[in-house]
Design goal:
2 copies of one chain form a homodimer.
Chain A (H helix, E strand, L loop, with lengths): L9 H8 L3 H9 L6 H14 L5 H7 L4 E5 L8 H12 L5 E5 L10 H8 L4 E4 L6 H10 L2 E4 L9 E5 L1 H15 L4 E6 L7 H15 L5 E5 L3 H14 L4 E5 L2 H13 L7 E6 L13 E4 L2 H16 L7 E4 L2 E3 L44
Parallel strand pairs in A: 1-2, 1-3, 3-4, 4-5, 5-11, 6-7, 6-8, 8-9, 9-10
Antiparallel strand pairs in A: 10-12
Helix pairs in contact in A: 1-2, 1-3, 2-3, 5-12, 8-9, 10-11
The structure holds a DNA duplex.
Chain lengths: 369, 369
DNA sequence: CTGAAAGCGCTTACAG
DNA sequence: CTGAAAGCGCTTACAG
């Protein structure tokens, strides 16, 4: 097989097959009204020449058969799951996916989305951008649009979220039921109203109030390191068993760093994350985390977008139920001892231990199952 | 600010500014031969209308100002580093990046690259695809191309690799110097000649021979789970201290699962990975790994591609030096004891312990520094 | 320095 | 069912 020769055009195919360009166009689009012989002739010519239509040219008149996904942060393990889902959903269609990463580290503006639109994608899935609802609303006038992670209805595009209030409640109640009474929430300092992090924060506060507990919010900049530094300070000040509910797994990994540095057991400092990224399940990490099914989100986002492209105009707002994955990083509280009480460096995290039995829900890969 | 209105065209701008379309075109391309007043008038019209040129239309005549990157596996933490580097390198240019993920889980064919070419990108960076050199050679006749991870020169495109032979030697010698004599190499069953994994395997064998050791190769399918299963079997059969050099970090994480399940210490089963992904550095993983600087690769790939687009035709073959990051997963060999000899579940991995001092090269985030 | 015209490779009405 | 013609929004020679 040789690569697509983009020197060959629809004209070449038409000439070889002895038909018009319009006929070839119909065949490649699988359009109505082509005789079997015509189709066969044209297909043979296409195969012989290795012809592929150029998306750019198609886009100028009709559709580009391309969907664009705007990604917030390619280094965070959650987003690839969404892409994987979207890819699956597109497997049997003519559509292909292109991804637009942020133009810079803290690009939260519309640049990435605009790059997609510049390329005449037939529809856009936006995941991370912090652009205003109004901006999206206007974009959606011309471009079919699905926004992931926006907790509101919109007039002209679809929104798709995990039920972050339920997810946060799951996390807090889990820690409460284990026996924790001091439960902090570590989250990003900047979180737009209606964003997943904002909703989780609000839910955290309200569940804490319901439980009669005092909320403690630790605000951080993005990144594992910021989470490590902030939680280290907070954990060092406490001398009782505590728990930290981190707003996503990347932050939770930072908290686990701090816990590890301070040599604390899960009973002394429990940690719960959000997203259930692949690494959370690793037995050496074994992070309890709220799973919001990124794969499923990718699948649904593509389905919604395809529906819009096919003509649907009324807006949809889908809410997916999250699920708590209990693992070794959260355990019943156990008072911190004087350092000398047990031999240092012989405590073990993430393995079976009398004080913190690994939950039965731990998946294979753990020796305790 | 409002979204780009793709209903506004160059024609609208020209009319508003009272000039020709050609003049507007020159201004947006920053082309030679425009008077300052012309530029000002046109720019004002562009701003007023929120005009953005459509990449698809531009591509039909000139350039699309878009570079395409073909990604092998979005779930592997190494590739995002390359993207991050490429993004950085493009920050001050007119160019934007689009990414093409594989169309399916085991898509190793040309589909993703073709998707990019269909969109008339001005150049392509290919990272993972297993297409033949001949195919790429032909593609490169029409499209500026840089291939990452191909250990050979090519006539029409540039190649960029890390020195995988050196990297593998670094890993094996490190284990040897710690005192290991039984060092297995776990790698993918399918690895094309000239691919990084193939070069690492060949180097592994040759270094083992030099050292007078018997090579043991464990062949696996892609994925952490396959690595876990295969290494579990292998580790369970051994009753002496062993070491596993895994062909990349994802596989190494699988080996660490097995090590963890068998409750082995780094002295009993040392593990070295390749890529030095973000998670390797986490104190609870602390994986010794060969760093091949993905960020740097992304930067250089973009530089090479831009040079080609600017007109360079002679081919380049860049080789980057890898660096070993020593961490807690590799340690001096220590005989496995009868299980009862030491209290179970009190041994600790990844923390300071008499048998496996954490190397001084461990970064911050470890309590031992 | 500026503009009128042609053309990139497709698809879309429209006529046959 | 099939084809000739127009046109999508740009850039590229080319004239002025």
């Amino acid at each position: 097989m040789t690569p697509a020769k983009h020197s060959t055009t629809i004209e070449d195919v038409a000439r070889l097959a002895g038909v018009s360009r319009a006929a070839v166009s119909k065949v490649i689009r699988d359009a109505y009204g082509v005789s079997p012989e015509m189709r066969a002739k044209v297909q043979a010519a296409i195969d012989e020449l290795g012809y592929r239509p150029r998306a750019a040219a198609r886009a100028m008149r009709g559709a580009s058969y391309t969907l664009g996904v705007e990604l917030p942060n390619i280094l965070n393990g959650f987003f690839p799951k969404i892409i994987a889902g979207a890819t699956m959903a597109l497997a049997d269609t003519q559509y292909q996916l292109i991804l637009a990463p942020p133009r810079s580290d803290d690009d939260e503006g519309p640049e990435a989305i605009e790059a997609l639109v510049d390329h005449q994608v037939d529809g856009v899935v936006t995941i991370g951008s912090r652009v205003s609802p109004a901006w999206l609303e206007e974009l959606a006038q011309n471009t079919p649009l699905v926004a992931i992670g926006r907790h509101y209805d919109s007039a002209h595009f679809d929104t798709l979220v995990s039920d972050d209030a339920v997810g946060a409640a799951l996390a807090v109640r889990h820690l409460y039921e284990l026996g924790h009474r001091r439960i902090a929430h570590l989250t990003l300092a900047k979180a737009a109203v209606g964003s997943p992090h904002h909703v989780r924060l609000v839910a955290y506060k309200s569940v804490m109030a319901e439980l009669g507990l005092t909320p403690e919010v630790i605000l951080v900049d993005p990144g594992e390191e910021a989470a490590r530094a902030a939680s280290l300070k907070w954990l060092a000040r406490a001398d009782e068993p505590v728990a930290v509910f981190a707003a996503h797994d990347e932050l939770a990994l930072g908290v686990l760093r701090a816990v590890s540095e301070l040599d604390l057991t899960p009973g002394q400092a429990s940690v719960v994350g959000y997203d259930d990224t692949a690494i959370a399940e690793h037995p050496m990490i074994s992070l309890t985390s709220v799973n919001q099914s990124g794969t499923q989100m990718g699948i649904i986002a593509v389905r919604l977008l395809l529906e819009r492209i096919a003509g649907r105009t009324e807006h949809m707002h889908e809410v997916l139920p999250p699920k708590l994955q209990v693992r070794g990083s959260s355990a019943a509280p156990k008072a911190r001892r004087t350092r000398g009480a047990a031999p240092r460096n012989t405590t073990t995290r993430n393995k079976k231990s009398p004080e913190a039995p690994t939950p039965a829900s731990a998946k294979k890969g753990s020796s305790d199952v």
